[in-house]
Design a protein that fits this description.
By secondary structure, the chain is an all-alpha fold. The chain has one domain (26-524): Cytochrome C Oxidase, Chain A (Up-down Bundle). It is built from 17 helices and two strands. It has a two-stranded antiparallel ribbon. α4 crosses α9 (251-285), α8 (206-237) runs parallel beside α10 (292-305) and α12 packs parallel to α15. The longest helix is centred in the N-terminal third of the chain and has 37 residues, at 71-107. It is globular, with a radius of gyration of 24 Å. The relative contact order is 0.10.
Length: 563
């Protein structure tokens, strides 16, 4: 006891700014670090999309705020836009940011089990962010071998003309993978070992299950790509020939290694977004989740099937047609559990007392937009149609109808829902809805024309269609301009969000402890949560979705409230 009394003043000593916000081990601060870094990188990726879409709409003209876009610039912009939005926006925000913030709060513990490892994971991630940004401004420019980095374009500077950009890109991605491996270990261990008393497996919120399974998917799938990335780096810097046919290598090897990770990676970011939607629709429909166990089992099925679909990206790469048939079947099979989840969400909404607050609008938009992405994915999962649509703008439109709901709509749904808990303030509902409608309408205005362009044969890696008279018709160019104008509208509507976000943090209406009348544990502590989250850690008595119970006067029943 005497020893504890001696060190108590040290434990509760006032922390400096650097100790509290930069080198903190508090999971909530680390979550904010991931989220703010992700938001900054989203601005970088958004600016890149503006530049290359202006080049496509008005080829050869100077882009305001950038200048003339060369072919090398275009390749670098497209490559790094994809890389940044996937690895430096979707993953840090949805997996690392939300995972860090929500896991301890939703399972009823005071912090992650490895707080220093948690801090180290963000520090390595921040280093990877610096490296990827530096890779854009080195001599020769940024890496332009596409975000898939297919050799030989990625393995030899003579092809990509980026002697520094290419290896720095590989190093940045590898560092990011190391960071998320550390984070995944922390997430899984914390959920396994630090749940509140009474929180059995069937009382864990769906979003926590989703984050845990996503972390496991990442850790299992990333190993082959890390090995492949080391070999690619050797090819770039040491002149080896792992992927160079002239030296006995095989460029298809990289494709297999990349997509063995790349397709599970889709579900690494999809599952947290699906979990976000589950949490929101139950709260704003005031209904119990329709089929908790079905969602859980289909999540496991999705994770397992994600490892046997990768070669549908290689239908035109010369793989055995018999293998193409096999991967067509597995690709169609994986659509079943995802469709089942969406049906469960729709069933949850049916008959509910729905309140159209801003988080609910984003959750409903996710279901609608992701459904379009899923249906168009059926076309690309079939080898017969994929041969004609591969590498066209149809693929790009499909990809954005899956990834935009995941990364962007999922983020906006999460931030508007948990904002009161994160910052202790309420966001403005009016400006939240202005931002919602402007974003959703503009998004569809951008990508619906790209389905038409893709089905008409427009290849997605052409920077100036004036070089291809068959694709440079007035009709096609009009669609490219149409998509670009809507992109400008989309970017403009992010300004109300940023203003609303900043102003609400500083001057927003003070949030109650539980403004949404939700059941899960994070709403039982103060807003924002203090260090250690609770004065006394909670005990769990029921599942997370006990809404509108006939045995209770209130239409919600917090997990920590005894019967």
């Amino acid at each position: 006891m005497a020893q504890m009394e001696d060190i108590a003043p040290l434990l509760h000593a006032k922390q400096s700014f650097w100790q509290k916000y930069i080198f903190s081990t508090d999971h909530k601060v680390i979550a904010m670090q991931y989220m703010f870094t992700g938001i900054f990188m989203a601005l970088v990726g958004g600016f890149m999309s503006y530049v290359f879409r202006m080049q496509l709409a008005y080829p050869g003209e100077s882009v305001p705020g950038y200048g003339i876009v060369s072919a090398l610039d275009y390749n670098a912009l497209v490559t790094n836009h994809g890389t940044i939005m996937i690895f430096w926006v979707a993953m840090p925000v949805l997996l690392a940011g939300l995972g860090n913030f929500l896991i301890p709060l939703m399972i009823g513990c005071d912090d992650m089990v490895f707080p220093r490892l948690n801090r180290l994971s963000y520090q390595i991630f921040f280093l990877s962010t610096v490296v990827i940004l530096v890779s854009l401004v080195v001599p020769g420019g940024g890496f332009g071998g596409a975000w898939t980095a297919y050799p030989p374009l990625s393995s030899e500077a003579t092809y990509s003309l980026t002697p520094w950009g290419a290896p720095l890109w590989v190093i940045a991605v590898a560092l990011e993978f190391v960071a998320f491996l550390m984070g995944g270990i922390n997430f899984v261990t914390t959920v396994m070992n630090s749940r509140a008393p009474g929180m059995k497996w069937n009382k864990i919120p769906i979003i926590i299950w989703m984050i845990v399974i996503a972390s496991i998917l990442f850790m299992v799938s990333v190993g082959p790509l890390v090995a492949g990335a080391v070999m690619l780096l050797f090819d770039q810097l040491l002149g080896t020939s792992f992927y160079n046919p002239a030296g006995g290598g095989d460029p298809l090897l990289w494709q297999h290694l990349f997509w063995f990770f790349g397709h599970p990676e889709v579900y690494v970011v999809l599952l947290p977004a699906m979990g976000i939607v589950a949490e929101i629709i139950t709260v704003f429909a005031r209904k119990k989740l329709f089929a908790y166990k079905i969602i859980l089992y289909t999540t496991f099925a999705t994770g397992l099937l994600s490892f046997v679909v990768w070669a549908h990206h290689q239908f035109v790469a010369g793989i055995d047609p018999r293998m193409a048939n096999l991967f067509t079947i597995t690709t169609l099979l994986i659509s079943i559990p995802i469709a089942e989840m969406l049906f469960v969400y729709i069933a949850t909404l049916f008959g509910g007392s729905i309140e159209f607050k801003t988080p609910m609008l984003w959750a409903l938009a996710f279901i609608a937009e992701f459904l379009i992405g899923g249906v168009t994915g059926i076309h690309l999962g079939s080898s017969g149609t994929d041969i004609y649509l591969h590498d066209t703008y149809f693929v790009l439109a499909h990809f954005h109808y899956t990834f935009f709901p995941i990364a962007i709509i999922g983020f906006f749904a999460a931030i508007t829902y948990w904002f009161p808990k994160m910052f202790g303030k309420m966001m403005n509902e009016f400006w939240g809805k202005v931002h919602f409608w402007g974003t959703i309408i503009a998004f569809n205005g951008i990508f619906i024309p790209l389905f038409i362009l893709g089905a008409s044969g427009q290849h997605r890696r052409v920077y100036n269609y004036d070089h291809f008279p068959d694709l440079a018709s007035e009709k096609f160019q009009g669609l490219r301009e149409h998509a670009t104008i809507w992109l400008l509208v989309l970017l403009a509507f992010q300004i109300p969000f940023l203003i609303n976000f900043i102003v609400s943090i500083r001057k927003g209406r003070k949030a109650e402890r539980n403004p949404w009348r939700a059941n899960t544990l994070e709403w039982t502590t103060a807003s924002p949560p203090p260090h250690g989250n609770w004065e006394e850690l909670p005990t769990v008595y029921r599942g997370p979705y006990e809404y509108s119970s006939p045995d209770r006067e209130d239409d919600f029943w917090p997990q920590d409230e005894p019967a």
